[in-house]
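Exercise: predict the fold of this chain.
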Amino acid sequence: MSGGAWLRLDALAWRSPKVAGLPSAALRWLWIVTLSEAKLQKPGGAFGSEDHWLQLTMGAGGDRKGFRALVSVGLLEVAPALCIRCLEGFHDAPEGTVVVHDWADFQINTNAERTRRWREKAKSSDALVTHSRVTPNAHVTLDNDNDKDNDKKVISNLRTRMNGVEPMSVGGIVRDLARKGNHRG
């Protein structure tokens, strides 16, 4: 049904002051519909105009009063009056373009973009242990076999395992890391 377009939504979004500031449940639903329609736009996160937004959201209760409510709490912005963070992604938006506030901070449109951000984060991170994947500089990963007994979860040194040596326990790795941390000077 989605055609591959997925919307990223914080589980506590409904508690945000902006969303909570909307005076009705119907307007909060209209916000979800707005995000969904924004995800389908090219570029994502922007509507060509207020009329364009109305056309796409009318079936879910979108009207000019709802539009003004979303703008007044800061969930939508209208070019050229964009905040600094929204200007970064929509600096060349024509006057009247409707932009979802902070769209680029929460919505990743392509696998390439998601991969680029992950790699940047991995390069700047000095954490060695991740869940179910290995960062480029990492030596360990968590094997999660969904075993209810946490003691049976093992952090494995992948290089060591490849050489035929048994993997280290969580406690062993923590002790090893603590010792290495104490010798840094």
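Check your answer against the key: The CA atoms of residues 91 and 149 lie 52 Å apart.
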